[in-house]
Amino acid sequence: MQILPLATVPALLIAMTVPDDVSVEAGWFFMSGRMGLDGTGRIFLILAGFVWLLASFSILSLFKSGHNRTRFHIFFLTAMAGNFGLILAQGMFGYYLFFAMMSFASYGLVAHEGHKDARRAGRIYLFLVMIGEMALFTALLCLVQTCDSMALNDLAGASYHPVIFILLFIGFGIKIGALPFHGWLIPAYQNAPPPAATALAGSMVNAGILGWLRFMPLGQISYPDGAMLFIIAGALASIYGVIAGLNSKQPGAVLGGSSISQMGLITVVFGMGLLDQDAGIYAIPVLILCVVHHSLAKSSLFFAYDLTTREGKIVSHFQLAAILFTALALAGMPFTSGAIVKTAFKELATHLGEPWYGISTFFLPLTATGTTILMLHFVRILKNMNTISKSGNILIQLVFVASFTAVATTLWIWPFADDFSSHSLEREQIFLGSLPVAAGCFLFFLLQRSVLTTKFQTGTPKRKNHFDTFKCLATDLVQKKRKEKQPQNMFAGSIYRLVPYLRKIEKVMGRWQVVGLSYLALCFCLLFLLL
Question: For residues 193 and 309, what is the distance between their CA atoms, to the nearest angstrom?
Fold first, then answer.
């Protein structure tokens, strides 16, 4: 299997050489399937090919031999083929076919390790995939009936019923981990082997965003009521992802929480593009920049996690600096690709006017501060790793360097991002972008200091994570208020009681019985709708 990386070469060659608006129709393939490439598809295909190429190289030294290696490669290649196929698909059912192939093959990547947690993660993922497939297939039937065509290009004149919008939100929202369908993402990212998790986070998750773009083309349709669904769900996810990540002490789970948060921001951008057709035209480049930035940065962090695991620890100051740079890029630190994306988001909000501009001036700094704390939490976990070295391989080191180089340079040298990159270097943007990152660093320092202080207190147990620190501080505050007989003690007590409730909700939502019953309920609702 040393030739595994060569499987990505055809996709990269197509992306580099085939002109725009070229399509090929095969009458024998799945209802006369049509394959082609446009400007948006080219960007997604190059991005997917790059991520899958690096993931393929990192796999070469992961498995030595045995049946499990062959099984993993089969699922890996099948998911890769489905990912490339859905990007090239120009028909509704062709997209659905490749989307389903990629989604079901990913189960083998999530559950590959075979232990209890991996099987549970795979089971939750599979049930949610089935819910998404049912919702997506029903939406496709409704769209075909509405526009009397199976070509994606004909969706511009389609009539979107609210039910269709909800079904499309569910079908593709499950893939990106949108609330409340995020339950699979954190356990899947933690239990899948790091190269597979990289492909999930860096490429396959983008299939949901591309699905929204294909089936709800921005700039051609507008649906203000549906836009609010996307904006509200995305805003909640951007906050909740930070909370879920801070509640974890495993690197893959922390990155899973970060993906929920970053995909929430992308969902907000898509929702803003649905407000009207003019907003949709302006939102498309912002959305693409967000996708490229997140994919490259998240892939690099997963490769850093993989490298640290194989080496047993962070082995050099350069590696630590590269990880820290990439992590803070997700928070929008100045002079990074994240600053370009944040600038693009601000300009979109400015273009839309009030109240969106006013909301963005509060919302973006809040999410940037939370992301900074979360990413410093991730770097701290990697820095404290001290495991037995498995295979210090020069290949995975080169993969990490390549991924870091892509994060540091792509958006700066890409002509598509020229305007936004130049605006991000303005003095005002640098100052405004520095404040949330500085605030996040300061808050993280305070949390760390609180953790270190509690370690030396007699009779006080060691805190496991930041949420235990929050709970301790809130508990002390409540006890103090009770002694002073202040009326605010009930409100303060609710602060630290919130975290255990969130944990319980996550556990309940992750039970396969709950997911399975939700699947059956959705099936009955869809059957009633069709009848």
Answer: 11
Q: CA 405: distance to chain centroid?
A: 20
Kindly report each contact of residues 361-366 with a partner whose C-beta sits within 8 Å and lies 24 or more positions away, as own/partner.
363/235, 363/238, 364/332, 364/436, 365/432, 365/435, 365/436, 365/439, 366/239, 366/436
Is the CB of residue 135 less than 8 Å from the CB of residue 526?
Answer: yes
3-state secondary structure of 38: coil
Q: How far apart are CA 241 and CA 292, in angstroms?
A: 19
Position 170, amino acid: I
Instruction: Select the more confidently predicted residue: 444 or 28.
Output: 444
Range from 80-89, 101-110, 423-432, 489-498 carrying the lowest mean pLDDT: 489-498
* Cα dist from 289 to 234, 375, 418, 522, whole Å: 17, 20, 11, 34
- Is the per-residue pLDDT at 511 higher than 80? no
Q: How far apart are CA 361 and CA 75, in angstroms?
A: 44
Give the pLDDT confidence score for residue 124 in this predicted structure: 87
CB–CB of 303/396 below 8 Å? yes
Are the C-beta atoms of 349 and 360 separated by less than 8 Å?
yes
Tokens of 426: 């303005």
Q: Which residues pair with 151 in a beta bridge?
A: 91
Is this model's pTM higher than 0.90 or not? no
Give the side-chain half-sphere CA count within 13 A for 227: 19
Count helices and strands (H / E) in the chain: 21, 2
Three-state secondary structure call for residue 318: helix
Mind listing the pLDDT tens digit for each residue in 342-377? 999 998 988 888 888 888 888 889 999 999 999 999
SS3 label, residue 14? helix
Helix-helix angle 251-273:277-311, to 10 degrees: 170
